[in-house]
Amino acid sequence: MLTCKSPRKVMRVAFFLARGAIPDHTSKFSRKDFTLPQLFACLVLREQQKKTYRETELLLLDAERWCRDIGMKKVPDHNTLWRAFHALHLGHRANKLLDVLSHWFAIARQLGTVVAIDSTLYDTHHRSRHYERRCRQFASGDKNTANSRRSRSARRTPKLCCGCDTRSHLIVSARARLGMGSDCPDFQPALFDAWRRYPGKRLHTALADAGYDSESNHRGARLDMGVRSLIKTGAGRPTVKRPSGKYRRLMHHQLRGSQKGKPYGQRAQAETVASMLKRNLGDALRSRGDLARRHELLMRVITHCLRCSIVDYEGRDRARDSPFQAVGGGNETAARLPTDDLAPFFVARKL
User: Residue 305 and residue 98: Cα distance in Å, rounded?
Assistant: First the structure.
């Protein structure tokens, strides 16, 4: 799936998205210099350009037209952007934003019937490969010291679990947490969020790797939601015994050997989405607090979905598969934009 590289277009679509899902102000006593949707659009720009708050302020000062496009009369200060990031409470509002995005893709008929679930880890800060080699070279020889240091870092490592649509690469469910724990507990909540966002409950198949192997996950997907779950077996210690449980034995038989050209082969699309997130938006987080890191992961998920929702037409057939589709090249883009009541419509305008 091609993604939009234009910061101005992504910023405008982010503003239209937030206008239907986020209130204008957190309190009736707010100063009302800016609205939360406007600041949300600036924060999406920050994530797309991989900049700090101060760098984002300087970028907007050089491109004041972008601010006027979303109704801002002046450029927000870097402290205002920092406070807005914490005032958005993305832990609660990210679900509403993903609901609206899924609604747009569903009306554009871009959602498929298969979702792939996978998780990935992020670095807490940027580290060069030379620095990593030096750390291993001068690591402490004391086993207890090394284990204590690793345990402390493992508990604070950011982890993102995503359920992505294999057809459009839209992330339809996301769960951000800290720690290198098991993936199994994330399967059913992630699948339920994805299942309820498909119109008419048209989700037919869920794909996951061996990290989510569990009989309870199969039962929750097949019996409660009516979704065919395909999960590789083999988690845990190697053994020659057959897996216990009806559905795990079925998976052991069906998913044996190469899956090229078979439904389970589409699970690689989840790896593609994780790679897109890290290549386009970075593999290290800038936030320092635990809650801020979870919110930053969710902000990157929303930014990725917005980039997928609008693509410039460059003569390639794949660009035609976007809900926000450019017509005639240049800056003219036919975009599906929501009104205040979230009723989508096609409108051609300069984004």
Answer: 8
Same domain, 36 and 105: no
Domains: count for the chain: 2
pLDDT tens, position by position, 205-251 = 999 999 999 999 999 999 999 999 999 988 767 777 888 889 999 99
β-pairing verdict for 205-208 and 324-326: unpaired
In a domain, 21, yes or no: yes
Cα 185 from Cα 36, distance rounded (Å): 33
pTM: 0.84
Q: Which residues contact 138 (CB under 8 A, 6 or more apart)?
A: none
Show the domain range for 251: 91-301
Distance CA 268, CA 230 (A): 13
Contacts of 27 (CB under 8 A, 6+ apart): none
Indicate the SS3 state at residue 169. Answer: coil
